[in-house]
């Protein structure tokens, strides 16, 4: 006899979520590798490091940060939309009544565990789901909700500053996000064990939607066999289609090099579409959190000197070239820039690799430079391009980010003139962007309605790279 158990919507959201979550965890590892600093330490001794080198090597993780971010920021949409559909369906259909834990669920879940361990002879009575399933299935939904919220809190901590605050700050949001990933892996192991212990009838219900009541002639029931065949056939066909889609995406050709390069074509399209979404949320009213001067790092981290590594560069000869048009360029000396109103900012500088540091910078607001040199017409263009004097490093900024009230052209760090390794005599500080946009030693500024060249966008990274 057949007993209906799981609807088609419940089954497919369950199975669709599995490969999506796997890809999210895998791409998350590609990102985490760039700054894998989480450990379990007690009394100065590290007992567990997340993760050992052999795991990275086994999964071919190292040096794939840009790729990991592109995959992660594509599949986050699938993960979120699938989760929203699942929750809405359970609410509208009334499935939530069978899923939510009840008053006695925790006591009964303990009894289920004892029964599964063969310590208790009889299982507690259950409805559609037993108490342990109610708790675990509700928990996984809450975990998914937590992953989306903490993910947004660390992905866009400026535009979603209120969410980052609700998560306890940027660092706690990162820890929570990472912890949820570990929890997913633990849940997966426990879930597989539970399904195995529950037996074939339970697994079939997760695929075909029905379970069979114990009767001697069930094996010969043509209706059971027919429905099982159709359901499993559809299940495997869907699995093959998903695998084919993944192979197509993973093996898709790289984009044709232009302003951006090195990313797979579909991933670059996804990055560009994601940029459009978050650019609409951008506001000058969304500013980075500032800190007291005492909290600023005394030793400011140096991560790269691409484009500013000229050992014999003479800053005395430096001039900032501002290109107003194809036929008009003018130069500005550092003393002219120092004569403009000075602005200081102490904020948490964030690197695309995952590390961050509270840093103290001072200089002139980009908007003040624009106003003083009557560049208002040029500033109406969509993009600002900046590059080093030797042309070795270059970035493109959208107009809104360049004109943000916290964007400065810095000539001081910790109340001292910039050092060579930090981009003397003038560098860009744009707090609403990752560090890859904070160009050292500005040589030239241009304006255009087309995207200027961007060094890291040519290496497969997101052109926007906004916080």
TrEMBL record:
Record domain Oxidoreductase molybdopterin-binding: where: 314-456
GO MF assignments: electron transfer activity
GO terms (BP aspect): respiratory electron transport chain
Protein name: Cytochrome b561
Organism this protein belongs to: Pedobacter hartonius
Keyword entries, A-Z: Cell membrane, Membrane, Transmembrane, Transmembrane helix
InterPro entries named among the record's database cross-references: Cyt_b561_bac/Ni-Hgenase, Di-haem_cyt_TM, OxRdtase_Mopterin-bd_dom, OxRdtase_Mopterin-bd_sf
Membrane topology field: Multi-pass membrane protein
Localisation per UniProt entry: Cell membrane
Transmembrane residue ranges: 12-34, 69-92, 135-155, 175-197, 229-249
Record-annotated Cytochrome b561 bacterial/Ni-hydrogenase domain positions: 6-200
Gene Ontology cellular component terms for the protein in this record: plasma membrane
SUPFAM superfamilies attached to this UniProt entry: Oxidoreductase molybdopterin-binding domain, Transmembrane di-heme cytochromes
């Amino acid at each position: 006899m057949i007993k209906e158990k799981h609807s088609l919507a419940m089954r497919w959201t369950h199975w669709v979520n599995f490969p999506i979550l796997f890809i999210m965890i895998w791409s998350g590892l590609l990102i985490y590798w760039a700054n894998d600093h989480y450990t379990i330490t007690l009394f100065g001794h590290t007992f567990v490091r997340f993760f050992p080198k052999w795991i990275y090597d086994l999964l071919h993780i190292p040096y794939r940060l840009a790729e990991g971010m592109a995959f992660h920021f594509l599949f986050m949409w699938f993960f979120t939309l699938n989760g929203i559909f699942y929750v809405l369906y359970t609410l509208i259909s009334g499935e939530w009544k069978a899923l939510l834990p009840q008053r006695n669920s925790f006591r009964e879940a303990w009894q289920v565990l004892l029964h599964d361990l063969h310590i208790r002879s009889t299982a507690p009575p259950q409805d559609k789901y037993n108490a342990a399933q109610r708790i675990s299935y509700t928990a996984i939904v809450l975990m998914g909700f937590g992953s989306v919220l903490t993910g947004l809190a660390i992905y866009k901590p400026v535009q979603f500053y209120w969410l980052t605050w609700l998560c306890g700050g940027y660092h706690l949001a990162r820890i929570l996000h990472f912890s949820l990933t570990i929890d997913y892996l633990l849940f997966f192991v426990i879930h597989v064990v539970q399904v195995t212990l529950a037996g074939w009838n339970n697994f079939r219900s997760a695929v075909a939607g029905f379970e069979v009541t114990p009767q001697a002639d069930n094996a010969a029931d043509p209706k059971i066999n027919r429905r099982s065949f159709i359901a499993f056939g559809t299940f495997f066909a869907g699995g093959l289609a998903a695998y084919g889609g993944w192979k197509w995406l993973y093996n898709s050709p790289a984009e044709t090099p232009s302003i951006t390069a090195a990313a797979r074509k579909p991933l670059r399209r996804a990055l560009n579409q994601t940029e459009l979404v978050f650019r609409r949320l951008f506001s000058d009213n969304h500013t980075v959190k500032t800190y007291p001067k005492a909290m600023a790092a005394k030793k400011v981290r140096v991560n790269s000197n691409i484009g500013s590594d000229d050992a014999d560069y003479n800053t005395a000869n430096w001039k900032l070239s501002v290109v107003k048009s194809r036929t008009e360029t003018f130069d500005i000396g550092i003393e002219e820039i120092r004569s403009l109103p000075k602005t200081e900012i102490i904020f948490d500088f964030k690197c695309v690799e995952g590390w961050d540091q509270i840093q103290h910078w001072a200089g002139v607001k980009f908007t003040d430079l624009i106003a003083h040199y009557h560049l208002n017409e040029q500033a109406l263009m969509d993009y600002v391009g900046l590059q080093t004097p030797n042309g070795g490093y270059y970035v493109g900024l959208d107009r809104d980010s360049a004109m943000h009230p916290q964007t400065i052209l810095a000539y001081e760090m910790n109340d001292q003139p910039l050092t060579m390794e930090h981009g003397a005599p003038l560098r860009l500080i744009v707090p609403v962007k990752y560090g890859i946009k904070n160009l050292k030693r500005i040589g030239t500024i241009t304006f255009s309605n087309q995207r200027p060249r961007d060094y890291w966008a040519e290496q497969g990274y997101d052109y926007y790279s906004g916080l």
